[in-house]
Write a structure and sequence with these properties.
This protein is an alpha/beta fold and 322 residues long. The chain has a single domain, classed as Arginase, Chain A (3-Layer(aba) Sandwich). The protein is built from 10 helices and 10 strands. The strands form 2 sheets. It has an 8-stranded parallel β-sheet with strand order 4-3-5-10-9-6-7-8, with helices on both faces. Helix 9 links the parallel strand 9 and strand 10. Bound molecules: manganese (II) ion (2 copies). One manganese (II) ion binds next to loops.
Length: 322
């Protein structure tokens, strides 16, 4: 009753028809798309990772994936800025949530990596809804394995996430990209942070980060240079390499994303973030995640609405890959 399939002219099953079933009715899948088991094959799978055992400050991102799904009910099938209908040309489906061990981070990372490899076995691209940022490491491992080479990465975040350890722990939400560089799964000629800001432990944090190969466009850089210049610099660095995009929702100012674990003042607006993403049109986007949405600190679904639009734009970009 609440999940009438809507097959389009291209043979893809799109979202439940909002003229037939109200948007707020029924169980939530991302953008009211079919579940993975309702389609023969997905070109893009949306998957949740309800895991937040790697956080260093406020917990709660384990509830993020379903919070984003609930806020995604209002997404409509046509994207005017990119002149694209992502669900017409691609079969997109919701693969549900990975069942990840909350008491054992090493096992959780193995599970995410294996699940990501399983889901992408036949060329399906993955858009992952977190969960905390720890999960980017196993997702990048899977992306690099599927690409057959290290991948370029754009990392949107208030934070570098290239710290070494916390309390001796190597695998946390503040360390995934240092591990990824150490493991050789990132193409260090084409990795950049965008939107970083806020106090660090010391200048060494930045020196280490530069040594790993990261370029940085800080949140003040985005403000001073503007979206177009930022996009031009990012495109120049990435070229046609296989690209993974990781979006920590705390890249947005707390005014635009209060529902997150480690908020920092002075962030991007949701408009700036979406415009930068749209500027990536045509790049070879092979995978993406949206992480660190923690609904307990959200107000009026502000953060979840932003995250659902970011996810929608990332899916649209996957369909516009050259
Ligand atoms: Mn962050
Ligand atoms: Mn992060």
């Amino acid at each position: 009753m609440d999940n009438l399939p809507r097959v389009n002219a291209n043979g893809r099953i799109g979202p439940v028809d909002a003229a037939q079933v109200p948007r707020y009715a029924g169980a939530a899948t991302f953008a009211r798309l079919p579940r993975l088991d309702q389609v023969e094959r997905a070109e893009v799978a949306v998957v949740g990772v309800p895991f937040d055992s790697g956080v260093s400050y406020r917990p709660g991102a384990r509830f993020g994936s379903n919070h984003i799904r609930e806020a995604s009910r209002l997404l409509r099938p046509y994207h005017p800025e990119l002149d694209a209908s992502p669900f017409e040309n691609l079969q997109v489906a919701d693969a549900g949530d990975m069942a990840v061990n909350p008491f054992n981070i090493n096992e959780a990372i193995e599970t995410v990596q294996q699940n990501a490899l399983d889901l992408t076995e036949h060329g399906t691209k993955l858009l992952t809804l977190g969960g905390d940022h720890t999960i980017a490491l196993p997702l990048l491992r899977a992306a690099a394995e599927r690409a057959g080479s290290p991948v370029a990465m754009l990392h949107f975040d208030a934070h570098l996430d290239t710290w070494d350890t916390y309390f001796g722990a190597e695998y946390t939400h503040g360390t995934p990209f240092r591990r990824a560089v150490e493991e050789g799964i990132l193409d260090t000629d084409a990795i950049s942070h965008v939107g970083t800001r806020g106090p660090l432990y010391g200048r060494k944090d930045l020196e280490d980060d530069r040594r790993f190969g990261f370029g940085i466009l800080t949140s003040p850089d985005v403000f001073r240079q503007g979206v177009d210049e930022v996009v031009a610099k990012l495109r120049d660095r990435i070229g046609n390499r296989p690209l993974y995009v990781s979006v920590d929702i705390d890249v947005l100012d707390p005014a635009h994303a209060p529902g997150t674990g480690t908020p920092e003042a002075g962030g991007l607006t949701s408009r700036e973030l979406l415009e930068i993403l749209r500027g990536l049109r045509g790049l070879n986007l092979v995978g993406a995640d949206v992480v660190e949405v923690a609904p307990a600190y959200d107000h009026a679904d502000v953060t979840a609405v932003a995250a659902s639009h970011v996810a929608y734009d990332l899916i649209t970009l996957m369909g516009l890959t050259a």
